[in-house]
Every structure is written in structure tokens, then in C-alpha cells.
Amino acid sequence: MRFLSYIESDPAQPWGPPPPELFEAIGAFGVEAVAAGVVVDQGGLAAIETSPHIRISGGKLTITDGPFTEAKEVIGGYGMYEVRSVEEAIEWSRRFMQIHLDTWPGFEGTSVVRQVFGPDMEG
């Protein structure tokens, strides 16, 4: 079973840039997850303010390149896990959030764990 885990946070929060300790801990976590054979992919995402938006509204498709000035929530990074159960995906995601709690004072966010379906996957 595959699960996508991503972190949502409010870009207006005053916790500042990610500290170097966060990246070091995430790197060690990634090495462990790869060694355990559960991580398919992981990474951070570029700023929402400069990311193109493709939208359907009112029966029309529009593309907007930005910059954008306001976002209520952003997805800052993701992990794709291949595990045996949703409980296992939750545990890996919980550990990833614990890294944020331990290394980034003041950070607030939510990790969302969603099962991924495809032609060769259970559903």
C-alpha cells in the first residue's frame, strides 16, 4: 500500500526559516526510511508564491504564473511511503512531525496521510 504524507502549514506564522538542525534530522530520517524499504520518494516544495496555478472556474481553464500574495495554507514537503498498513504510514509520518517538534521551536502544522491508488495498487 502506498501513502502520501504531506505537511500543511500557515505561511503567515512567525516561526522563521527552518533551522539547520531540522534538515540534518530529516536527512537521517530519510536514510533510515530508505534502509527500511518504506520510502518511495520525499522532498520539499518550492514556495507557493512563485508556483504556477492551473485552475478551472466558471467553465474556463486559466494558468496564472504568480507571484501570488496570499495563501491560507501551503504544503511545504511530502513523503511517499510504501508500507503494509495505514497504521505504519501514520507512524512514519508521526516520527517526521516529531522531528519538526524537536528541532523547530514554534513551528505549527498538520501532517495529512492519504492512501494513493493506481492501476497496480489495492483500493
From TrEMBL:
Highest taxon listed in the record's lineage: Bacteria
One Pfam family of this chain: YCII
Provenance organism: Aeromicrobium ginsengisoli
Protein name: YCII-related domain-containing protein
Family according to the record: Belongs to the YciI family.
InterPro entries with a match to the protein in the record: Dimeric_a/b-barrel, YCII
PANTHER family: BLL0086 PROTEIN (PTHR35174:SF1), BLL7171 PROTEIN-RELATED (PTHR35174)
TM ranges: none
Domain YCII-related per the UniProt entry, residue ranges: 42-95
Gene3D superfamilies: Dimeric alpha+beta barrel
